[in-house]
Amino acid sequence: MTTAGVNEVLAEVRSVAVLDFGHLARYTLGNRNLEDEILALFLTETERLVAGLGQAADGTAWKAAAHGIKGSARGVGAFAIGEIAAHCEAAGRPGNDAHRAALIEWLHTELERVRRAIAAR
């Protein structure tokens, strides 16, 4: 992917809310304890899947981990992470280690933003 392409994706991701608490509240019927539990599970699972990206030996393992991140993120309202994961799923292939490392770092950055949004609520 070109620098311009990465910048376009970055601009798109940054235009999305870090975490859409309203989206999550619709699924939990506003139960804050349930939301907290779901978000904790999301963070744990996403961290595990991001580590799986770093260990992916082939394109199938990479895409499976990216797909899991995408689904989990979109489910809880972490749409920016979902968009990055969709980009990983589509563009991340073995053989371009610098690109894969940049995508993983980007996911770590967005996960930290989610953690801060959770703490600030």
Brief digest:
This protein is mainly α.
Please describe what this structure looks like:
With 121 residues, the protein is an all-alpha fold. 82% of the residues lie in helices and 0% in strands. It is built from six helices and no strands. The longest helix is centred in the middle third of the chain and has 24 residues, at 32-55.
SSE diagram, text form:
Elements: H1 3-14, H2 21-28, H3 32-55, H4 59-76, H5 79-91, H6 97-120
Largest sheet geometry: none
Percent of sequence in beta strands: under 5%
Q: CA-to-CA gap between the ends?
A: 36 Å
Low-confidence stretches: none
How helix-rich are the residues, as a percent range?
over 70%
Summarize model confidence as the mean pLDDT: 87
H/E element sequence:
HHHHHH
Specify the number of helices: 6
What distinguishing features does this structure have?
about 120 residues
